[in-house]
Amino acid sequence: MADVDVSLVADEISHLIFRVTNLIPGVENKLDSVLKGLRQMHHFLCDVDAKLEQNDEVKNWEDYSKAAQQVEDIINEFILKTIRKKGFWKKELFSWQDPRSPSKLHDQLKQMESKIHDISRRRGLAFEECIGGESSRQDIRGPVQKEEIKEQLITGVTRLCVISILGDEGMGKKSLAMEIYNSNDVKEHFQCCAWVNESEKILQEIAEQVKFYEFKPDTRNIREGELVQKLWEFLKTRKYLIVMADMWFTKVWDKLRVAFPDSDNGSRILFTTEDPECPIKVLRPLNEHESWELFTEKVSVPSKFSQLARVLVSACVGIPLVTVQFGALMSIMKADHDWVWEGMQELSNDWDRRFCIRALNAYWDLPLYLKHCFFYVVCFPENYEIPARRLIALWIAEGLVEVSKDGLSPEEVAETYIKKLIRRNLIQVAKQKIDEELVKTCRLPIALRQFWLSNAKEANFLLSRRKRKSMPSSSSSSPPRTDMIFRLFDNLDENHLHRNDTNPHDFQPYRYLYSLLSFDLRQGSKPGEDIENFFHRGITSTGRWFQLLRVLDLEGVFKPRLNRVLGKLINLRYLGLRWTFLDTLPPSIGNLKFLQTLDVKHTYVNNLPSSIWKLKHLRHLYLNNNRLEPVRGGTLLDLQTLRGVLVNKESQVKGGFDRSTDLRKLGLTCRSMSEDSQQEALAEWVRKLKNLRVLRLKSTDDLGQPSCLNLKSLLGLGVLSNIYLVGKLQKLFEDQFPPSVTRLTLSASELRDDSMPTLEKLLNLRILELFSGSYTGTRMVFSSKGFGQLRQLRLWKLHELKVWRVEVGAMPNIREIEIRFCNNLKMLPDGLQHLSTLQKLRLWKLEELEEWTVEKGAMPSIREIEIGFCNKLKMLPEDGLQHLSTLQKLKLTGMPKQFNAKVNKDHGHQDWFPPSYKAEYM
Prior knowledge:
Helix content is 32%, strand content 15%. By secondary structure, the chain is an alpha/beta fold. The protein has an 18-stranded parallel sheet, with helices on one face. Residues 146-299 form the NB-ARC domain.
């Protein structure tokens, strides 16, 4: 749809206004005026996209897209010319040196402003014609007629009655209730009416709508208990109708019923709900014939796709709203085009058509900003697991994340976008962070991928399809009208990066390129050479393209050659070089004044150029144990993430690193920091990071062996949730960690005393990992009621541990326990049997483990047990596994032959194993 073009232009102008603070008077105001007009056009096209059918009126709106493209060209040319002027980088402000440029820009913008105003006037004339009439409304009530419910509201008994319209999501409950509520005969029958949705202030909203506050203006701020009493008194003398829309009856009614008097005057309460425990008026689903009739009211189905269409409509399971939305979506996407149906063809063989139909309907109702974000996910390779960290940074770099009015950071806003797309079934969680309940990686469901790709292309997300015109005269500054590529994903079309064009005009489609993402994982030097050649040819050509490029993501591309071209990509926001094995970064990286994310993790880059301190807008810096020495006056105030930095006794912590105080994530390796003053400076810096959420500290000597880690109390870091510490601590204090910690990993800590009494008091701790040398004692006790929120426990290489006791009531929410290389542990604690939520148990290389008892009723939720290289464990618990009725998988690796034979003999052919049970011998 045209709205994608309009939004991109509007976003570009908005970003431009934000940056341009030194233009001559008048120009900035003119940009703001055009922005306002574009926003109006954008909202209008959103309405068209969401509400109008494919008809003659809609076809007449195509000139809006053409106008948007003209404004886009003006703005892009404005940026390109501006960034070539001398003094562009002076104080990071634009500076016009040519006195003729402002007047020309004024004229161009004035012309476009007039055009936009003209479009707006035409919108005012035509908008009501398109969507204002009765014909645009959809009847999705289903078979239950509204007259039946109206009759119950208006006639019948005079006592107070509660009536509920019950049905699944999308059945049309709310639409039916709204029709009834707004009808004249209902409004005239009741003295006061209120329509409320679920919120924390339902009573206040009812009081407002029944005009209670007009009679009692001094009661607006009274307590809820007083409001209940006074509202009851007010309603007692009136015949009232209260509609509770989309509320769970049993949850709400018991709390609110005391506010509604029964004056025997015919008052009514009407619920729309999915709660089966309510007085019901059930909406039944549509039958097959009704569903097809409703769908074909919206869509003209080509005869060759009729059978497919019926299959898809049946997947709407008779829900009127789902059927209507699906039909509207197909109509808007020009269902007479074969590509739409061909993209849907894959659904006919998908086992979960209902899931896909709901995803399609969710897309139909998707806000425009989320459509852009979703298209980004669509363009990644099939089955690609996208780290949420990476996706969020890409969205922000592209300007797709809106500024929060609630003070949230762009990253926090983007996290809500991911959650919204997941809730709408458009993307799936691949891996989740249990400690934070956040998404770690996500992916696009395979079903419908080709359909989404076709839709992204049709929506001009990747390129703008324009009719070719003759080449402009030499006096014209406008580029020829041709397809303009906005985003280049080489997995979708590899011809872009791997061809050898030399004619400058062949690079014209890349003039407005915003993003380039490469997934070229070929071995050898060719991928890196292709990247260099592509950029070099474009930058050195007459047009000097790529100066609008915001995103360059080359993750996994082997050694891309960027030294000659990187410093010329001056509009870059995101530079992803992870896993490229690159060995150097050029000093010209300091030219990338707007860079927000630099990722060189898993590369061979050892020394960073000092010019990196010029990147004043840098928010995320991922290194690979690199030294990063602050320079005089160098401060990265916007920095949120600093990972993979190596500091030593020569590093400037005080007066250097400690000037970055807004960090959310910090990962440092401290090498040979033996001086107390240096350790003190580091500890004080960490304590100043009040917004810190993730802390990873590793302390080593010159040989890379763990050394002392001077760590003071972190109690003052109130939002710190993830701590990873490698180094000698020897003792933990009561106030060592804040209660906000959800994940704690300790390694080489050399704790001599049992620290469990301290750690089990961390009330929000979900993951505890005690790795090699973290505990050097022989005895460990998990006391009753300790570790109340713990989900995962990992004990690795605790070589001195001999006795581990788990008391009844400990770890009441544990799901997974993994024990590896605890060589002196002879018995598993009896308390494991009382862990009713335990699902996975892994035992690996417990060389002294001899006994394991499983009694009847033990571990009632266990699904998977894995045992490997426990050579002294002669057999599984005698008759024990018979009690584990939920066990689905038993994996045995490296166990003695007699052990495997015993298992096979005693359990391999018995019928008490569940159907899903699987034994593996490796």
